[in-house]
Amino acid sequence: MMMLPFPDPAKLKTRKIVFEDVFAALDPCTLEQLKELSSKRRVIEETINDTSSITEAIAREMSGGLTSKAEQDLHKLKEYLPLLGNLIFHLDAISRNRQVIHWISNLRIQWSSALGSSLSLLNLMGAKYFQLNNIRFELGMTLFLYGAILRERACEISPVALVQSATLFREAAGVYLYLSQEVLPSFHSANAGQKPPEATSSVASVMNLICLADAQAVTIRKAEEKKATVGLLAKLHYGVAEFLIEASGILYSGNEEVKDVSPRLFEYVSSFKSLHELRSKRYLAQDLQALGQVGLSIGILREALNSAAKKIPGEESWRLIIKEEIDGVSEALAKLERENEFVWHEKIPSSDELPLPQGSKIVSAIPYQPMRYERQLVFKI
């Protein structure tokens, strides 16, 4: 059972920050910590901007032997985030100081968007960078990237390690939930037009729901391996669709925060939902057929195909996966229709007589626990 690939959220870029050039340290220890913070960020900058000259062997050695690029990137982020958290903790204590406000404005925190609506134009012109004079913008975008790479690692291992993959998807969901509830709401609404979609609570909420849908989709594959009943599988697949129905509700809400979201994200959520609705109805039809309700099974498969045919995505890789599913349902329907014609002779109900699908959502986010290195920082103010 194939998943729809969507690596876009991890395609962020950023511009260089040198913390020790902006913040005036009062002692050598603080200066060294600022330099360490800049160093840890620099390796992230070089990785996501594709400017690193480090060989694969050195990258593996620097990450303690990790061979996966996604794992190496997660290692880099896990080293940077606690240092950034410590800086934010100390800046919060002196946030009203004019000198501190001036320093933060000079950081020039700049990130591009991977989910913005103008990406097709920007591919020709180069990435557009958003700048906010708010240290939590740096935290928010770094956490968004962390969640996206957790999700990439989960996708990478899903063919061979279903349980671990589902756990990583749930961890990514927890990162986005933390972002939407704890970090991004602190941004003032005055910044609405200056922020990339990734720095909004609404898009973080959509990503949380996508990751939960991912986790449940992987969990279903485990349930299929264990020969779960077709009735249960139908409910689990529709549970995936329910997560995505909720995500669609946010995207189509008309909220100011989602007005600049890329149409590609809309299409991905719609295609992901369509795929699992189709799979749900296929299992539901099998369940009803086993109960002798052949006419109802045929009605459900016909309705499923009609619905899926209206939502064929433009992205080729998604279209091929959904087309393969449609072909399987079409084959099952043709077989049932032949049997009904020669054996059962059951009446086929109209679409408004068909049962409403029922879903079961069995996954939840693993709460993100932010780490902070408790080191003293003293500034000249």
TrEMBL record:
Gene3D superfamilies, per database record: alix/aip1 like domains
PROSITE patterns noted in UniProt: BRO1 (PS51180)
Ranges for domain BRO1: 1-381
InterPro entries noted in UniProt: BRO1_dom, BRO1_sf, BROX
Homology family: Belongs to the BROX family.
Name the UniProt record assigns to this protein: Apoptosis-linked gene 2-interacting protein X 1
Gene that specifies this protein: LOC116200777
